[in-house]
């Protein structure tokens, strides 16, 4: 039975951010994730988690200047010091919030920039991030993202992400498998889940879902999520599955698809 975590960046936007924890718990969620916590003191978020019996599943390290359009800095040449500081900041929050996974976003690459140079920087930065996180008992995840949602994003394919993890060789570095992004870029979701779930190195450290193509509820669109949830269970995955989608209308009103899973977690 999948363990669903509400993504509080995309879901429950009917409420102020700190009030979304109560709304998610009321609907039956036991876990939450979000993009970034840094506008709020970690202690304030932890208080909401404790008050409502929620587990923090995941959040992202600082991504650079998000408001200016940056989408991560892990692969950006010349930003290594800033990346290291972002990892340290993320780990400080994780120590308070209790999550065991930290996502670091790769960043954007322009057509005229060297992919080889970006990849070399990425590998070095991930080596640093994994080593820093390992001492805290935290895993680092990297996520392939489709270039329709984020044009120019450096990392797009599951096999490339797995190869990068293999090259770094850190036991706590894994891939964040977002089924929405993978369906848009590659498809063949079941085969890729079977291929990567049991890899001796790297593997899948976190899963996210959304309907394709509009990124609404998972019961809307071209992907058969009940089949994939059964497959994920059969493969022995016991981590969280983040619901990173934009509700078509009200968040709670659109949770009919999730009720069988929320009632059994």
What do you see in this structure?
By secondary structure, this protein is α/β, with parallel strands linked by helices. The chain has one domain: Alpha-Beta Barrel (TIM Barrel). Helices cover 36% and strands 14% of the residues. Strands 1-2-3-4-5-6-7-8 form an eight-stranded parallel β-barrel, surrounded by six helices. Helix 3 runs parallel beside helix 4.
Give the helix/strand layout:
Blueprint: E1 3-7, H1 20-26, E2 31-33, H2 42-51, E3 55-60, H3 80-97, E4 101-103, H4 115-134, E5 139-142, H5 158-168, E6 173-178, H6 179-185, H7 189-197, E7 204-209, H8 225-234, E8 240-243, H9 259-262
Parallel strand pairs: 1-2, 1-8, 2-3, 3-4, 4-5, 5-6, 6-7, 7-8
Helix pairs in contact: 3-4, 4-5
Active site: 143 (proton donor/acceptor), 244 (proton donor/acceptor)
Pfam family, one: AP_endonuc_2
Protein name: Hydroxypyruvate isomerase
Please supply descriptive tags for the structure shown above.
globular, Hydroxypyruvate isomerase, eight-stranded parallel beta barrel, alpha/beta, 265 residues, Xyl_isomerase-like_TIM-brl, 9 helices, TIM Barrel
